[in-house]
Amino acid sequence: MTVKNGYKKIIAFLILYITIFNFRTKAYINNRQCINHIYNKEISQQCNYSNNYKRKVFNKNHILVEKINTSSSDLNNNNTQEKENNAIPNKKLKKKDKKILKKYKDFLDIIPNKSTEYDMIDAIEKIKTLAVHKFVESIDIYLSFNPKKSKMTKNDNIKTFITFPHNLKKQRAKKVYVVTNSNLHKAAADAGADVVGEDDLINKIKEREIKLQKKNTNYLLCTNDVIHKLARVGKEIGSKGLMPNEKSGTLVSEFLLAKHIKLFKFENTYIFKLNKLNTLNLNVGDVYMANDQIKENILHLFDHLDNLEFFHFNIKNLKSIYLSSTMGFPFKIKKTNL
């Protein structure tokens, strides 16, 4: 067998293979096209049937909806205004917002906005109307100062006491403890002190027989000649903020002892100091007081701040003024009222 004859046989085999393959592929394609055509016909018939059924159902429902709308249109026109007034947005409210809506349903118009400023008397009236709780709510003032504009330094510690001209209608449970020498025990008791003593009182505080509470409910007064004895109970007193001090009016001389006992026991006297954040929070009145009395207490506070040493009070130094009750909303006050 020569090489030429071998090539001829290979070429003949390839030609025969190609002809057979083409014939089979054409037959396969024709069969596939027929199957697809039949399948598409069946699907189109099903779709037409379903569309016709849906059209019939839609037409029936459309007719019913038109009848219902025509019958209820008169009723809806009469009640549109009531629904608009009583409409509530379908938003998910937080727990705090839900509580506010329950308590203050009738006073939603009075709730303050953060951006608006109010007159002092107007704000006091709104605070009183929003005082819904069962107990007697107190009215507090919140002042924030700008340390850059004032002449204060880091060493200036503003701590003082103030006696307001008008007393609260609700009575605070106050106790006055006096540490002094034996010669002044009777005078202190006559002035209204609850507990008077010297070494015996200090020992009771150290052994915790007497439980002292925080300032502005309990007051510890001391005279100058006995102040060194309180070093034994410095931790117990200092943690409650009751250490006697001249600025707070609790460290006094023998002549002023009776006067200061009466101030802290029977009058509306508070000890306060400026915080590190240059803010001041103080109780000015309560809900049962008259509006003019609360305003006079606030103005008396500003006069007192103006007369303090190391604190040059000015409206320019004042960032903001807020009034609020114990469980109420804060109202921003205009600076022009001062």
TrEMBL record:
Keyword Ribosomal protein in record: yes
SUPFAM superfamilies assigned: Ribosomal protein L1
Keywords: Ribonucleoprotein, Ribosomal protein
GO cellular component, one term: ribosome
Short name of one Pfam family: Ribosomal_L1
InterPro entries: Ribosomal_uL1-like, Ribosomal_uL1/biogenesis, Ribosomal_uL1_3-a/b-sand
Record has Nucleotide-binding as a keyword: no
Family, as annotated: Belongs to the universal ribosomal protein uL1 family.
Protein name stated in the entry: 50S ribosomal protein L1, apicoplast, putative
Native organism taxonomy: Eukaryota, Sar, Alveolata, Apicomplexa, Aconoidasida
